[in-house]
Amino acid sequence: MLIANAVLADGTQRHIDVTGGRIAALLPASAGVPARDDVLDVAGALLLPPLVDGHIHLDKTLLGLPWVPNQATGNNVADRIEAERKVRATRTVPEVETGSNLVRQVVAGGTLHMRSHVDIDNQLGLRNLHEVLKIRDRFRGLVSIQIVAFPQSGILRSPGTADLLDAAIAEGADLVGGLDPVGIDGDLDGHLEAIFAIAERRGVGVDIHLHDGGESGIAQLIAIAERTTASGLQGKSAVSHAFALGSVPADVAARTADVLARAGVAIMSHGPGGAPIPPLALLHQHGVVVFGGSDNIRDAWSPFGNGDMLERAMMIGYRANYRHDHELEFAFDMVTGAAARILGIEGYGVAVGAAADLVVVEAGSVAEAVAARPRRKLVIKAGKIVARDGVLAA
Amino acid sequence: MLIANAVLADGTQRHIDVTGGRIAALLPASAGVPARDDVLDVAGALLLPPLVDGHIHLDKTLLGLPWVPNQATGNNVADRIEAERKVRATRTVPEVETGSNLVRQVVAGGTLHMRSHVDIDNQLGLRNLHEVLKIRDRFRGLVSIQIVAFPQSGILRSPGTADLLDAAIAEGADLVGGLDPVGIDGDLDGHLEAIFAIAERRGVGVDIHLHDGGESGIAQLIAIAERTTASGLQGKSAVSHAFALGSVPADVAARTADVLARAGVAIMSHGPGGAPIPPLALLHQHGVVVFGGSDNIRDAWSPFGNGDMLERAMMIGYRANYRHDHELEFAFDMVTGAAARILGIEGYGVAVGAAADLVVVEAGSVAEAVAARPRRKLVIKAGKIVARDGVLAA
Fold it and tell me: Residue B128: which H helix or E strand, with range?
């Protein structure tokens, strides 16, 4: 296959020679289109690397079901955990089906790699993990799904959960998760001790949800950085949300950023609507890898979201007050290159030798693609077209 | 025409009998579809009133042109005014064409009424007004366009602007605008005196941009309320943005809301991404009409936006941290009923006697329509289909 007349993110126009599912050559378009019978001429459309969703909840979504109104009685994390239990108790379609609906939708939108948190607590056991493992098997070869064993009900306040998290890793989860060590479990050291013990024993990374704000959130970030260093997990540790970084003065955020950068702790943001957004550019300047994710998509937590990572980059840019092209490109990197680095995707990118995983859109530049979120003209996986004009191939 | 099997916002299923461009009857669907040869069966789709954009800038958009990177050198209103001058100086396609591109796009998305601010200053004169008047003429009968004579460069710091605003009303603008009386003109009384003098003389309403935050913004809101009452403009006065209400303690916002409600001053919000969002529900509870608008769409101010008012309701809801159905319905009202009231649209709504201006989408409820922003299946103007599946009829 030769993808002809594609404009790359750097503005150059190229023909992409795809062989054996990989990019064999990036030829200058000025040379004209070679005479071959496998030419796919994209006529100056923009060719992007595949989108990466660094934070999704495949087991939570209700996508494809009739509308389920939000039932939370209050406005904090604990209220939403309770509301989710109610929704879960009444759902009749298994998570493998709704999660598959979501995977199909996001692949059609150009997402070919994702990190999904999966709820684990002492009521659910490993049920949701088993559902998401089925989804991973179902879509193997099309999309890579990294699984975080996520203690949605806490660890200490849901006795037995630590053992379940450990068992989840044994059964195929890739990372250990966490949740507001202070806000939910009320025991910073106990919560982190449980997470990092499993991570060390199993040789896996960590990705911890942290909604707790202000000075408490900052103290937890610093404790996570210290544990990360002590466990030798630099580069394999992430904190999702970290609203605290957006709720403290810039000098406090900058000092915390230095601590996170030294410890190799990355920060995931979905561009929160109702919570403070971390100072993403400041974090980046201080050496912290920041990456993007969808978070909740039409589930008991949020009615919003659709898994479109160009739209997510737009939302991040909108919340961060980005307007210049270099800022929109930074938001784009959060849902492509930076997320791929954190997820450890090998052979990622539009480069010779990389996997021929590609997304084609009608846009004049990456900045325009983020702002306008055009329909995905083509999604290509290992050199094969898997979606066209937003519709998954059969 | 009989629109059969439509689900209304209240959940009831109806047949809508359209005669002479108006809704003649809302028949219970349980009675079965009448035997007529002009039946349009929408098969349980959701029927909505037309969307209303309470704040758009038809003269600023660059929609349809190749991507123009943002050129502002700083991050405040004055910097962006300068950047816009640069963009304007180099554009070769007249505003009537780019503005028409935007009108076509928003009509295809179900917007049939809008309030457009139009830049007026002592360099531009009435040039942009004349462009937007041409747009209004071009689309007359399809979409109603209310025009605000908007002093984008200030009034006192752009000498001669007050006379131009007055002349704009004489030439067809519908309201007098304003811009940060303190932040831009540095003269609260002088700025408001100029605006309200014209409004009183010409018998028109006012709609004032107010980005100024904190206590200064609150003081300006109170001054606007006082002027509104003194000029007898209750119900014909609006403040756009009013970020200040989102940057002060709730008790200050509540007291200010009482002042605004007594004076009949409405508040427009687009759900700002990088500025504080006013406490919309609190304002509503205190009797202030809050309505929605797009604000900037792909122009020198913002790369974002597309004029889709269902997406705008979503953005408002996302920023306001709305999750429950009644909250999403409130955001929807901001871009339909509440905006129609502020714009003074007669015969608005899905009711017997109202104009047969309707939007059909595939959604189970208004809340779902806001969260999912489905493609507009049909847009109907005065009983005629003017767009189908997001594409404008020829």
Answer: helix B127-138
